[in-house]
């Protein structure tokens, strides 16, 4: 029986030594299952090579970084749209407010979340990520009944922010 056990151990150990991605996928999978947007969570984390060696705190940093990237992309589109029109319209006014909201996401909410994770103040980190989600929604609401040119981007920033908040909550519970 001992020989059989040793052979089994020798067969199992190399397999685990060679497959950290299986363990990684499991951490990402288990983490993302605890968020409301599983597919978005998995795709965002797996797109970042740093997720390979990350713990849950590292995954939170990656998601906050994703908020920053998506918010910056959205702000660039807003600036482009503002540059295309000089008329004082309801749509232009909405875009101007959205630019301010996205500045807040990038300059305040993301920075707050990162600094708070650094300090271990996860409640404050969670608040920063929730604030980003609220600001993305507020941008969308600025367009009222008019069609927003930013709906998809606002939704993405909102959802990524909620995923980040959910991951921070996992750390708080852990």
From TrEMBL:
Record's signal peptide: 1-17
Entry keyword set: Disulfide bond, Signal
GO MF annotation, one: enzyme inhibitor activity
InterPro entries, A to Z: C/VIF1, Invertase/methylesterase_inhib, Pectinesterase_inhib_dom
Domain named Pectinesterase inhibitor: residues: 23-167
Entry-linked SUPFAM superfamilies: Plant invertase/pectin methylesterase inhibitor
UniProt key word Lipoprotein: no
Family: Belongs to the PMEI family.
NCBIfam families to which the protein is assigned, alphabetical: PME_inhib
Name of the protein in question: PMEI domain-containing protein
Gene source species: Cephalotus follicularis (Albany pitcher plant)
